[in-house]
């Protein structure tokens, strides 16, 4: 997998719906995507949902946002920390890209933009080097959550057997 | 012939709505009771007296001042109310008002208010009962759509984000929810849970919001469509640029 990853022919995609997605819609879309062979890595992008009110007179009061749900993707429970606004991913080739586009057509109830580009870093930066050292797993590059606690919520490996 | 205030140039629906907001001649669309309003503002318990910072002006004995004789104090100032705020956030997706037009509406049509205009939110500070009068006016009329605008005292994030699937502007503190076909507020404006759910009424449909908005957008009424507005904006910029320029030498 890491060879395929380092291959510059991999394709990076962004799914950008015209509305922010409910957790239920996000769950069905992610499940459709998880079915597709050839997805290398993926992350969900969107406005963060706080557990407690961060500032103001109500600081510390629990929020209990309906977007902050546990969804189940490919048999694994994932707690959504953001309201899903977009999905960025790296896939093997253009065939997989078309399959992802079909999945979006099937599942998304709203119009969406679907574009190819560079969304996840392919090369290690100096900061990555400082964080992870010289022998870092290349698949983890650019997969950090800048505001998240990576040690508390490690990146979810959906299909570990495929990585072998 | 008496002079009639013109407020804003332009022939498009957006220009017309801007004139309506500035003149205060807006349509009333919904009702919110005084107790519900007090509850969502969160400054005092519903039904309680207005706390005061000084005795009523009549008891204080004011110094002799010609201006004080000319200007009648507002009811809040007369009673010695505290200064309190109300803050609105309007979505960029065709919300009826924008921070500037809320400020124009407040400053032109109400006395004793201190509007603050920011890019995504608009705050008005005033004596408590004067502020409540303004908040009630803005919530009840076409200046506010409960889904596309919101009362947010803290954590205003959301005005520039895409709308969620249900069309209710994103709020990370989840103060407002769509229940059935109405919008319900179950927290006060800073995010504290309140005792009862306050019904803010039905949200505007997409078509109605596009009709009532004061926002020029290329996917609705584009700014460039309004020749008279463009002419006046150019004129203001032109005058501002050459103002003070004296080519005497």
Provide an overview of this structure.
The complex is a heterodimer of chains A (164) and B (249). With 164 residues, chain A is an alpha+beta fold. Chain A is 26% helix and 20% strand. With 249 residues, chain B is α+β, with helices and mostly antiparallel strands. Chain B has a single domain, classed as Lambda Exonuclease, Chain A (Alpha-Beta Complex). Chain B is built from nine helices and seven strands; from the N terminus they run αααααβαββαββββαα. In chain B, a hairpin with a 3-residue loop joins strand 2 (113-117) and strand 3. The longest helix of chain B has 16 residues, at 227-242. The chains are: A alpha+beta (164), B alpha+beta (249). The A-B interface holds A 17-22, 25, 47-50, 53-58, 61, 63-67, 83, 85, 109-110 and B 42, 153-155, 157-158, 161-167, 170, 172-174, 177, 190-193.
SSE order and pairing:
The complex is a heterodimer of chains A (164) and B (249).
Chain A: H1 2-6, E1 11-17, H2 23-35, E2 39-45, E3 70-73, E4 76-79, E5 86-91, H3 94-107, E6 112-116, H4 126-132, H5 160-163
Antiparallel strand pairs in A: 1-5, 1-6, 2-5, 3-4
Helix pairs in contact in A: 2-3
Chain B: H1 13-23, H2 34-41, H3 57-60, H4 66-70, H5 75-79, E1 83-90, H6 99-109, E2 113-117, E3 121-127, H7 128-140, E4 149-151, E5 176-179, E6 182-187, E7 193-201, H8 206-212, H9 227-242
Antiparallel strand pairs in B: 1-3, 1-4, 2-3, 5-6, 6-7
